[in-house]
Amino acid sequence: MNNRIKIVVIGGSGLIGKKLVYNLRQQGHEVVAASPSSGVNTVTGEGLAQALDGTDRLLASGYFRAKMAQEKLIKASPIPYTIVRATQFFEFVGGIAKSATEGQTVRLPPALMPPIAADDVAAVVADVALAKPSNGTFDLAGPEPIRQDGFVREFLNATEDARTVITDPKALHTSGVRCSYVAKYLFRPEEPHVRP
Questions:
Q1: Which residues on neighbouring strands pair with residue 80, listed in sequence order?
Q2: How far apart are CA 173 and CA 161, in angstroms?
Q3: DSSP, res 173
Q4: How many CB atoms lie within 10 A of CB 86?
Q5: pLDDT in tens, 94-141
Q6: Label partner for 152 (CA 20 to 30 A): which of 28, 44, 75, 83?
Q7: Tens digits of per-residue pLDDT, 129-174?
Q8: 79 CB contacts (<8 Å, ≥6 apart)?
Q9: What is the pTM of this model?
Q10: Strand, coil or helix: what is 32?
């Protein structure tokens, strides 16, 4: 492949990171899966210089508070970039249930969320990594909004899990904020599922 480039994926051992590394390697690129388990710590800087040596693209998979700090640093740098944010992954439904469980009860808000498959996120991020940087951010979401409580209830029923889901508007959303905030700011049904 004559367009082979070196790409470093920060978080390359996580759910999306692993898939992204695989997708890019399948396309013939040199890919470094950077994570603490591979000797690269983005907090302390340990191993980072070596991993980035000769890099053509830098990707960070995942999102939340630490990712917001990373975004600020990326935007302030002179290096061209494109930031992709994704909504909750279908694959995390078991973790959502676990984090909201007390005994045999799962308390979740009726907040709308448009989950997306991790494979779809990895495919889009791979395409973005190989495209010309936009110096911007876009959000990626699943095609249909579903209520968080209903999503987990369906999962528990499908896996024959005996826990009971209680709809509680005061329960914390899996992002750690109250349902009313999530409904107002994190998902707006009138917007398309991919926004530049």
A1: none
A2: 21
A3: P
A4: 21
A5: 999 998 999 999 999 888 888 899 999 999 989 988 889 899 888 888
A6: 83
A7: 888 989 988 888 888 889 999 999 999 999 999 999 999 988 865 5
A8: 58
A9: 0.69
A10: strand
